[in-house]
Amino acid sequence: MLNTLVLQAEQERGVTQPELVRQLLSLNVHQIELRREYQSGQLAELRALNDLRLRHRLVYFYSIPDDLFVDGQVNPQLIQYVAEAAAMGASYLKMTLGDFENTTDFTADQVLRWLPENMHLNIENDQTVTNTAPDKLTAFFQTFTASPNKVGFVNDLGNWVFTQRDTFAMTRKLLPFTRFVHLKNYRLDAHQVPQTVAFDQGELNIEELLHQFSPELPVALEYPTTLTALQHDIATLTSKEDVD
């Protein structure tokens, strides 16, 4: 799977998200994660993305830079996000958790009632301490034990370093809830500040980490790069899977 962040430079010079998808199609990838912050907000754009999905039999994941819980309540914007995903034909939403610890009398239905039958919600660890607290994440996912396939976890392997948490320990702890993986790496600069890099170029032992996951899980490349470099990265990742 490819997140449209891989073509960040193109987006920054004004290329629309439908055009980013068209460029990624040249790599023969059929699972694409769209970014809400790359959208124009126009219905015509959502329809264009849906047309591409239908024409090329794509599976869309929809990344939303917002918390599921705001002021101790389910974010009222969730309804809008679900409507946008439905307009594009996206099967998966992705958000961050927010202040779940401040909820009272929370039940799974408060989230599930907004999700269409064919749509799933995933929560990601971002680069903040509060949204990556493992006990809070675990408590939230355990609320959905009766419907584990509707709500799950996105493990962003390159984000744990920003919260000073151990990537391997967090991967093991949250593995039962993990539904897909964001694959990227990091390097420390001269000031010991982590910088995101391609999955095979950084400090993390990505091959060992990937062995923790079921081969059934979708894996998304998510770091700024180019189409040419992506061809190399996809070939590298595929060769590792073939060896395994």
Largest sheet: 9 strands, mixed
Mean pLDDT equals 94
Q: Return the string of H and E elements.
A: EHHEHEEHEHEHEHEEEHEH
| Cα radius of gyration in angstroms | 18 Å
Count of DSSP strands: 11
- Strand % is 15-25%
Derived from helix and strand composition plus strand pairing, the structural class reads: alpha/beta
State the low-pLDDT regions, or none.
Answer: none
Instruction: Using the alpha-carbon principal axes, give the shape.
Output: globular
Structural account:
This protein has 244 residues and is of the alpha/beta class. Helices cover 34% and strands 23% of the residues. It contains nine helices and eleven strands. The chain has helices at residues 8-12, 17-25, 43-56, 78-88, 109-112, 134-142, 167-174, 206-210, 227-243, and strands at residues 2-3, 31-35, 59-70, 73-74, 92-98, 120-124, 151-156, 178-183, 185-188, 194-197, 219-221. The strands form two sheets. Strands 1, 2, 3, 4, 5, 6, 7, 8 and 11 form a nine-stranded mixed beta sheet that branches. Strands 9-10 form a two-stranded antiparallel ribbon. Helix 2 packs parallel to helix 3 and helix 3 crosses helix 4 (78-88). The longest helix is centred in the C-terminal third of the chain and has 17 residues, at 227-243. It is globular, with a radius of gyration of 18 Å. The two termini are 19 Å apart.
